[in-house]
Amino acid sequence: MAGSTVQAPTPGVPFTTHTRSIHGCQIFYREAGDPTASTILLLHGFPSSSHQFRHLIPLLAQHYHVLAPDYPGFGFTHVPPALHYTFTFDNIANTMAEWLRQLDIEKYSFYAFDYGAPVGLRMAYANQGAVQAIISQNGNMYIQGLGPGVAVLSDYITHPENADAEHAARDFASFAGVKGQYVEGVANPSLISPESYTLDAALQARPGNIDIQLSLFRDYGTNPGLYPKWQEYLREKQPPVLAVWGKNDSIFVPAGAEAFKDDVPHAEVHLLEGGHFLLETHVVEVGELMLDFLKRKGI
Fold this sequence. Notes:
By secondary structure, this protein is α/β, with parallel strands linked by helices.
């Protein structure tokens, strides 16, 4: 069956897991490949973690050094309550930048999915010489890329004091909300392995985590205001850009992928028949597109 092919263990280089203390946070990450090879940084989104890259990492690591962290507030990264960490996109980007610095990673290409776009683009803008290429997978930085699925967050950002808006935001982080992000836009939802959204929902349900997610939902409103700066960075630096998007995503819609060509005329755009979590159904295709793209760019 086609679904079995996608979901079977991915051949390639196995990854190892590690933890490193950064600013008091115990950052969990997955690593694979030759450390002397060019680095690919995989930046996850909400509500997931580096677990979403479990099948992509072995494919890429046959040719590259691959790193995939869990942000503070996500996955298996631990943030001690006594740290009083402020959960904003600025702070997460700063923590990830320090993590890379401690790993002695000076240059890298990054894969931006969902939250990975505002995290990765903050890092790129702050250290523009470090980025060798950008791969966007439903990782948005254009107003026209914001789809109807973002409306629930927009209402909460605009009216955080409104009880109905907060209730809808909490639902977005619930098991049903998490599962919906995985299966919506997928022609055959049976292709989605249930451990994906089940793990995400379980980690989201840990005591205190909903408050972290609500903080980040409110802070998401800072991102559109930075789009012009990030677009200026693309126009000036012209980094190689590959956009591989699930075209049935209602959160970040295809117009956001096509918009890259306004700022980077040679950007390559592929719209695949999938949803938000494209890797759950198209990991081999995405991996092959990435490997071909990076090879052609001399990376």
